[in-house]
């Protein structure tokens, strides 16, 4: 019955898309139409208008863009892609690009960027491994989102406390947090104000040199004890020290304040000293009065400062019949006009790295309260950001497994060691199943396993590893920064 239902669903999706694209083949004044599968953000309409201005400025043919906001999501993208009815351009998270490329759904954009005399990859280095696969580029960022702690400087000043330092240890975070909690909740009947909203366990884990996968991405990181340590520490900060709110406390706060879980409204009202997030937070915060004086500081670290980043990226569907028109939009995303739009709109980080030097980014004239924060985002993007570790031998279940095991422990089910063990064993099992189901990946997998054996042997002897052997983007940077890897000349 489930198979029949899924078959009917796929048929309906395909039929609806065929009808939509057939009925809307021409846009304004007979201009060809390309379809952009994306979110319903009002900024998309501004970007389309800017695109058409860009076309006119450069003497390119006029092209109309229609938004398809009903078919977002990985499941719909895969169903439509394999059946030949996907949109011409598809928004997706950068970490999904290798999955779609392995399925043969994506067009190689290398010739497009060469035609427009653009570099193969022209955005931030931390996101390169998501876009460039085997020397070919399959996506380009619409924006990227490195995270920092946004600090409410006004709240710290009202409490008579110094703001947090830009860089701090795990121990310093805990010490300052306890002082903050005591001061902020002094005289209250119950605890209402918290030091920080959210601790990114992935960033803390990597700060201790702990990866999600081994060097060749052929197995999850084997050090269960270290993962246990991170989970235990975050649990302590939540339930013993109360530096960060639990899920139950967050739900209670949202209900009582009437914000429906709007975290940035709670931050603006002074319920959190800091909130972890990307630059897109400013879209909401700029609408609130009075404007907060803001700064940005790093996640506390265990020895290796870093931050998380990802991207909202655009890919071209390999089955598109309008590639000759869609290629212009990909070139537009590499333009200064588009990046300046992202800068002014505060829709995360602009894709062009050169924008981070611009006064419009660092010191927006209308928002002097943000200047310190903008500089923090620029620094994080250049120096701290590390993208997702993406294994080509594992389906997207990696994230759901990690989230389920971690959430279960944080809600009181099992121990930290059990949660860490579930993550390791569950991901190992899923990887074995994936390789067995995809024989075309088996040859690459066995070659990578053989290389991993050589790496392990070198590590056991205390020798450095050639950097080109390391497929894991986090470990590659970590080993180079800490001197555990060296560059090897390739003939």
What's this, in brief?
It contains 21 helices and 15 strands. By secondary structure, the protein is of the alpha/beta class. The strands form five sheets. A five-stranded mixed β-sheet has the order 2-1-3-12-6.
Structural account:
This protein is of the alpha/beta class and 491 residues long. It has a domain of 189 residues: D-Maltodextrin-Binding Protein, domain 2 (3-Layer(aba) Sandwich). It contains 21 helices and 15 strands. The strands form 5 sheets. Strands 2-1-3-12-6 form a 5-stranded mixed β-sheet. The N terminus is likely disordered.
SSE blueprint:
Layout (H helix, E strand, L loop, with lengths): L1 H22 L9 E5 L5 H15 L6 E5 L5 H10 L5 E5 L3 H6 L7 H6 L12 H4 E2 L2 E2 L2 E5 L3 E5 H6 L11 H15 L9 E4 L3 H7 L16 H17 L6 H11 L5 H6 L3 E6 L3 H5 L8 E4 L9 E2 L2 E6 L6 H11 L2 H10 L13 H4 L8 H14 E2 L10 H14 L5 H22 L1 H22 L4 E2 L6 H10 L2 E2 L5
Parallel strand pairs: 1-2, 1-3, 8-9, 11-13, 14-15
Antiparallel strand pairs: 3-12, 4-5, 6-12, 7-9, 7-10
| Overall pLDDT score | 89
Number of helices, where a helix is a run of at least 4 consecutive DSSP H or I residues: 21
CATH fold assignment of the domain at 2-143 and 311-357: D-Maltodextrin-Binding Protein, domain 2
Estimated share of beta-strand residues:
5-15%
Percent of residues in helices comes to 40-55%
| Structural class based on helices, strands and sheet pairing | alpha/beta
CATH class category name of the domain at 2-143 and 311-357 = Alpha Beta
- What do we call the CATH homologous superfamily of the domain at 2-143 and 311-357? Periplasmic binding protein-like II
Largest sheet: 5 strands, mixed
Widest sheet, order of strands: 2-1-3-12-6
Low-confidence stretches: 1-24
Query: What is the molecular shape?
Result: globular
- The name of the CATH architecture of the domain at 2-143 and 311-357 is 3-Layer(aba) Sandwich
> Can you count the beta strands?
15
Radius of gyration: 24 Å
Question: How many angstroms separate the termini?
Answer: 56 Å
């Amino acid at each position: 019955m489930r198979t029949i239902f899924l078959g009917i669903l796929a048929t309906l999706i395909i039929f609806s898309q065929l009808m939509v694209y057939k009925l809307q083949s021409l846009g304004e004044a007979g201009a060809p139409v390309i379809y952009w599968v994306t979110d319903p953000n009002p900024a998309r309409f501004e970007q389309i208008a800017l695109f058409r201005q860009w076309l006119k400025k450069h003497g390119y043919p006029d092209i109309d863009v229609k938004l398809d906001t009903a078919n977002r999501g990985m499941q719909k993208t895969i169903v439509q892609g394999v059946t030949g009815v996907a949109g011409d351009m598809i928004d997706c998270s950068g970490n999904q690009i290798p999955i779609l490329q392995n399925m043969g759904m994506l067009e190689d954009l290398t010739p497009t960027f060469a035609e427009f005399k653009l570099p193969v990859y022209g955005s931030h280095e931390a996101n390169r491994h998501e876009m460039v696969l085997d020397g070919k580029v399959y996506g380009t960022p619409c924006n990227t989102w490195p995270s920092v702690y946004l600090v409410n400087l006004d709240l710290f000043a009202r409490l008579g406390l110094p703001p947090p330092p830009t860089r701090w240890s795990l121990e310093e975070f805990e010490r300052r947090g306890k002082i903050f909690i005591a001061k902020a909740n002094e005289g209250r009947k119950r605890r209402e104000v918290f030091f920080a909203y959210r601790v990114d366990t992935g960033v803390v884990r990597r700060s201790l040199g702990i990866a999600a996968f081994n060097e060749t991405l052929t197995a999850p990181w084997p050090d269960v004890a270290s993962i246990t340590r991170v989970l235990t520490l975050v649990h302590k900060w939540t339930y013993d020290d109360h530096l960060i709110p639990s899920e139950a406390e967050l739900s209670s706060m949202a209900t009582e304040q009437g914000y429906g879980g709007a975290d940035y409204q709670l931050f603006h009202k002074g319920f959190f000293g800091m909130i972890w997030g990307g630059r897109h937070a400013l879209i909401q915060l700029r609408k609130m009065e009075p404007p907060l004086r803001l700064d940005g500081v790093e996640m506390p670290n265990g020895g290796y400062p870093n931050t998380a980043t990802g991207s909202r990226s655009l890919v071209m569907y390999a089955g598109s019949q309008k590639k000759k028109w869609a290629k212009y939009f990909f070139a537009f995303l590499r333009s200064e006009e588009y990046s300046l739009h992202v800068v002014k709109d505060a829709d995360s980080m602009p894709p062009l790295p050169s924008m981070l030097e611009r006064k419009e980014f660092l010191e927006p004239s209308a928002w002097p309260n943000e200047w310190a924060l903008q500089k923090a985002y620029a620094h994080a993007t250049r120096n701290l950001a590390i993208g997702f570790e993406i294994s080509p031998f594992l389906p997207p279940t990696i994230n759901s497994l990690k989230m389920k095991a971690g959430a279960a422990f944080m809600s009181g089910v099992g121990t930290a060691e059990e949660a860490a063990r579930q993550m390791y064993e569950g991901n190992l099992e899923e990887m074995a199943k994936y390789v067995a189901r995809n024989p075309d990946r088996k040859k690459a997998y066995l070659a990578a396993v053989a290389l991993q054996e050589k790496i392990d042997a070198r590590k056991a002897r205390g020798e450095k590893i050639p950097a080109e052997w390391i497929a894991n983007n986090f470990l590659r940077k970590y080993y180079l920064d800490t001197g555990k890897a060296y560059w090897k000349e390739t003939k």
